[in-house]
């Protein structure tokens, strides 16, 4: 077998492989002889079918199967010979597959990048900490009450937090536009579910009122034809409802799976859940910050095949998240562009983390794995059963081990970086990193 490799661009390789005709002929003859011994045909005793009959009737199909197998075997043997690490399967182009002549084909594929990790000691990391105060718990309990609130129609002007049932139609330059009309829609004022100015313009409205709103679509609005456009919405208010908050009693506590008879016991459970949420939020933000720095310091080429594979994973996750496990939505109908940036970052981080593990010889901490499982099981009514289930499910257990190994990599990188600590409020701490950054930018601009 002859092999030549050419670098076409970046991570792409073209490997030309030539296999002697004798190898193909020998494999074809073996298959013909095997079928002559095993195939049953009318007019011949079992095992006595002449090979020339088999070759005449099934020779093309046998040769086709042999060629496919030889191409696959030759490719992986050549990859090992040339010490290449393919990222995804190859594209095969048969150059010559004529009988009696050498088989020649070209395999085009991408390889994993060669990574030399940059020194992480130059990275500047800000580690947040936060304390849960009594007023934070009070606010959380009020939020839970609002989630379970009953809506009662009121005969007064609408206030922030009220729910209005409305009909509306939007116009641009006097013309109605697609998607700008609705009837019988419930809208909570202050929910920010409509464009800026819409909800604020309905404060003070009463049931039966006709309100005309002059608003402007944001420049980053998702519909291209509406970006930055001034619009007029004609709104009919059908009803105004105020929220009636539930009492703090056993019935209310049970809605959150908390078996408590006293408000103090419920409050203690709420605080415990908040502490768990806070720990997770701070850990997630630190990890994201560390990985952002890792990517920033190590500019690497990423195989398109791995990005495409991750896009497919994200598509499936999106379908399951919004359509449920039995959704009939074809994930491939979701636009590739929706997931491309996220997929590329995930693959980049994955490759860099693997390299850190390899370079530092990090081994998964089994004790930490069990601690993580115990923390995850705390949220269930029968924690011990959950712990046993995790440990008995190899696939899930491996996922947790990978997560713990990733956490160990983060700890190692943080230990080598320039770390400053800052204390923030609970509300700020649990905000997603991107949202927190946007809030900080907005405050800086004021």
TrEMBL record:
Record's signal peptide: none
Annotated GO biological process: 'de novo' cotranslational protein folding; cell division; protein transport; protein unfolding
Domain PPIase FKBP-type: 161-249
Cellular-component GO terms for this entry: cytoplasm
Keywords from the named record: Cell cycle, Cell division, Chaperone, Cytoplasm, Isomerase, Rotamase
InterPro entries the record matches: PPIase_dom_sf, PPIase_FKBP_dom, Trig_fac, Trigger_fac_C, Trigger_fac_C_sf, Trigger_fac_ribosome-bd_bac, Trigger_fac_ribosome-bd_sf, Trigger_fact/SurA_dom_sf
GO molecular function terms noted in the UniProt entry: peptidyl-prolyl cis-trans isomerase activity; protein folding chaperone; ribosome binding
EC number: 5.2.1.8
Places the protein is found: Cytoplasm
Catalytic activity: [protein]-peptidylproline (omega=180) = [protein]-peptidylproline (omega=0)
Enzyme class: isomerase
Family in the record: Belongs to the FKBP-type PPIase family. Tig subfamily.
Domain notes: Consists of 3 domains; the N-terminus binds the ribosome, the middle domain has PPIase activity, while the C-terminus has intrinsic chaperone activity on its own.
Entry function: Involved in protein export. Acts as a chaperone by maintaining the newly synthesized protein in an open conformation. Functions as a peptidyl-prolyl cis-trans isomerase.
Name the UniProt record assigns to this protein: Trigger factor
Species: Marinobacterium lacunae
Gene from which the chain derives: tig
